[in-house]
Amino acid sequence: MKIKRISNILILDKEKKQAKNYTEEYYNQIGFLRQNQGKLEEALIAYAQAIGINPKKSWAYYHTLGGIFQENNLYRKAV
Asked: pTM of the entire structure?
């Protein structure tokens, strides 16, 4: 099992089993909602879970995560 690290969040690759209803899009939407609510940590976790489900699309989520860090003046983490 491969493990990746985003900030302080560990992501398990595709081998992590997800419930049937919890798809990449589900976690993307949760991340978006939490981000708009100002719940940074919950948004980061949701986006990290989306990356774990579909690593091929990780570039889009990393871009989003970088934007979240930048908006919160966490420039080193944004990079």
From this structure: 0.65
